[in-house]
């Protein structure tokens, strides 16, 4: 960043911080970060307990917002490496999605069926700890027509982290002043994942299914569960037979249908 650009960027902080907390300051933050590097879209999700992700801010046009927000909130977030990192209490900082993605993520069904629809080439995010154990994830997205974030861009964005954290925390404090009621659907979505196939599968088979849905290969599943790859393959064969399917893509399809039909049918495959 040249001297003139640095002066404009640091000067922008003086205009950003006095903005009203919430959407005004978050919009100002997104515009300020654009001075560091090009970002196609921003989205700020808050992950809190078993609630569905709360969309605190986004910059999506109306015609694509449903893919990035509504479709994501309906269940695919459970397979998102950023969400899973939050459940593991990932340290605050700026992270690339691929740092958390399992070995077959970009070949897996979550990517092929959902993530690929977003048309993204890369996603990085600020992880910010909030009150009461919640975590904010501010994603900076680039589409396939844009290059990956360079090392210099990542270093400059890292310098912006204290400002990002302050603006996001102030926006969350404003939002959490409005009580967020527990919604049955939030817990049903999580239960649908935790109990998927419970009436048909053994506990070990359920563990394997959850890892497969999240994009792990047989080798990665074996490493995660400390069993041999051959044992995983036997389990996979038994799982597919019990569920009446023949592939990992059909497994994800079955899970998505379970989510969609859970309200009406009470969950075909979940323990009742």
From TrEMBL:
Entry-linked SUPFAM superfamilies: C-terminal effector domain of the bipartite response regulators, Pheromone-binding domain of LuxR-like quorum-sensing transcription factors
Chain ranges of the HTH luxR-type domain: 194-259
GO-annotated biological processes: regulation of DNA-templated transcription
Domain of life: Bacteria
Keyword DNA-binding listed: yes
Keyword Protein transport (UniProt): no
Pfam families cross-referenced by the UniProt entry: GerE
GO molecular function annotation: DNA binding
Assigned keywords, A-Z: DNA-binding, Transcription, Transcription regulation
CDD domains tied to this protein: LuxR_C_like
UniProt xrefs under PANTHER family: DNA-BINDING TRANSCRIPTIONAL ACTIVATOR DEVR_DOSR
Protein name: LuxR family transcriptional regulator
Organism this protein belongs to: Pseudomonas nicosulfuronedens
Organismal lineage: Bacteria, Pseudomonadati, Pseudomonadota, Gammaproteobacteria, Pseudomonadales
């Amino acid at each position: 960043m040249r001297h003139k650009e640095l002066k404009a960027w640091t000067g922008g902080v003086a205009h950003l911080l006095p903005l009203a907390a919430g959407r005004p300051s978050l919009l100002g933050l997104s515009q300020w970060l654009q001075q560091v590097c090009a970002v196609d879209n921003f989205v700020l999700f808050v992950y809190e307990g078993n609630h569905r992700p709360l969309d605190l801010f986004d910059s999506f046009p109306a015609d694509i917002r449903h893919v990035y927000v509504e479709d994501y909130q309906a269940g695919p977030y459970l397979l998102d490496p950023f969400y899973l990192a939050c459940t593991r209490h990932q340290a605050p900082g700026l992270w690339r999605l691929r740092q958390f993605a399992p070995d077959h993520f970009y070949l897996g069904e979550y990517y092929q069926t959902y993530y690929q629809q977003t048309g993204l080439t890369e996603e990085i995010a600020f992880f910010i700890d909030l009150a009461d154990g919640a975590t904010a994830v501010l994603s900076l997205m680039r589409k396939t027509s844009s290059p990956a974030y360079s090392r210099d861009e990542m270093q400059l964005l890292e310098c912006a982290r204290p400002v990002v954290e302050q603006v996001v925390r102030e926006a969350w404090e404003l939002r959490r002043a409005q009580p967020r009621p527990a919604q049955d659907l939030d817990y049903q979505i999580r239960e649908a994942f935790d109990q998927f196939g419970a009436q048909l599968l053994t506990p070990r088979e359920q563990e394997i299914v959850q890892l497969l849905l999240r994009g792990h290969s047989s080798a990665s599943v074996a490493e995660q569960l400390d069993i041999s790859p051959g044992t995983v393959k036997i389990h996979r064969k038994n799982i597919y037979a019990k569920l009446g399917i023949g592939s990992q893509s059909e497994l994800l399809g079955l899970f998505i249908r379970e989510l969609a039909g859970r309200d009406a049918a009470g969950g075909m495959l979940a323990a009742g």
